[in-house]
Amino acid sequence: MEELRNNIDKQKLVVLGAGESGVGAAILAQRKGYDVFVSDYGAIPLAFKARLNEYKIPYEEDGHNELVILGSQIVIKSPGIPQTAPIVKKVKEAEIDILSEIEFASQYTDAQLICITGSNGKSTTATLTWFILRQAGLNVGLAGNIGKSFAEQVAHEKHDYYVLEISSFMLDDIKQMKIDIAVLLNITPDHLDRYDYKMENYAKSKFKIIQNQDQGGVFIFNQDDEEIMKRLDSYTTPAQKYPFTQQGELVEGAYVDMDHNIVIKVLNQDTFDMSINELALQGKHNVYNNMASGIVAKVLELRNESIRESMGEYQNIAHRLEHVSQIGGVNFINDSKATNVNSVWYALESMPGDVVLIMGGVDKGNDYHILKDLVRTKVRAIVCIGEDNQRIHEAFSDDTEIMVNTANMQDAVSMAYHLAKKGDTVLLSPACASFDLFKNYEDRGDQFKSAVRDL
């Protein structure tokens, strides 16, 4: 990799996929002297075309020119493109180097890399960690699976730290990238279609976050997660390990004590403590998120007062348990980013009262069994949105009295408001992908917020 960095000489570099990461990688590659070409099998959104045109980067859409692609020396593959895609197979057969955007960008920055992964909570934890570091005065960027691409930030900005939200798809493509502080929040079934429907394959991808760490690295992990603990001994790292738990005290790491305080103990640092009732983000799952972020902050030797202040002031990201409004005593929460069953479990668990749940969309082979107890005890009604909600009806017909189908977000919100009582929460937490009725989960969440405002 170092040889690539120092011996570019106008090497031909092709970027597959013209989304946020692909366009960012193309911009960085151009700045570093590569002869860049972007190829997308589908249509390129107008906003990304405009950025490519601005930098005069040539591109194609609606198909791949194999002659051009296979004539390159390096290919950067967007994380959404599976290894089994025909063009990726041909690139491998041609023995052309394939890099991910984050690995490529990591070659061109000396910043400390704080990478956060997990099936649930990684967006919140990454953003919270970035917020704590920024509030403490550190020069820190936020990238990865969130916000502006890592590569484009490296091209234009110079941060001392980067907090990267890392998906399993991104981890699949890591080869030599070394992560300074690795955070593994949890491993629950998600995207199993990409991993031959084998949990072991998915877990292996998650553990790649520690594969290149050395003794100077830090590995932070959830000791209460069954899948992590089952495999911890199989994926070793020389890095310093800091677990976090809500099930007892630890000598080092983070835990919740008998008085409901988060306690964080990190080597050679004074102990941090804070009441969980003072956290801006409430709910059991958010205690885990705060513990993980807090360990990162303590490892970086931030002051306790600064960490405590940030944890008490932080406001959640859009589309993840985002409070939209209160109308007629009914709260409206946008959790459109909850595209799997476990995310919905976390959302329901954190709700203080009865819930009217809006859910549905493109089912990814969901197992709804883990939601049944929470639906039975907390959900007043389920409002289905999507083209096919048969499996949701089959899963919960015995657990809640009211289940209705709606054809669009406007109708779903109107029906949910009609069914809710004062003090209830209308929660959009779909458990499904969005691309039957919406462009993406952001579009779904935005339509939810717009419909609430129209009530």
TrEMBL record:
Keywords recorded for this protein, A-Z: ATP-binding, Cell cycle, Cell division, Cell shape, Cell wall biogenesis/degradation, Cytoplasm, Ligase, Nucleotide-binding, Peptidoglycan synthesis
Pathway assignment: Cell wall biogenesis; peptidoglycan biosynthesis
Keyword field contains Nucleotide-binding: yes
Domain Mur ligase central: start-end pairs: 116-296
Subcellular locations according to the entry: Cytoplasm
Domain of life, per lineage: Bacteria
GO terms of molecular function: UDP-N-acetylmuramoylalanine-D-glutamate ligase activity
Domain Mur ligase C-terminal residue range list: 319-432
Its EC number(s): 6.3.2.9
Function according to Swiss-Prot or TrEMBL: Cell wall formation. Catalyzes the addition of glutamate to the nucleotide precursor UDP-N-acetylmuramoyl-L-alanine (UMA).
Protein family membership: Belongs to the MurCDEF family.
Protein name: UDP-N-acetylmuramoylalanine--D-glutamate ligase
Organism: Albibacterium profundi
Gene name as annotated: murD
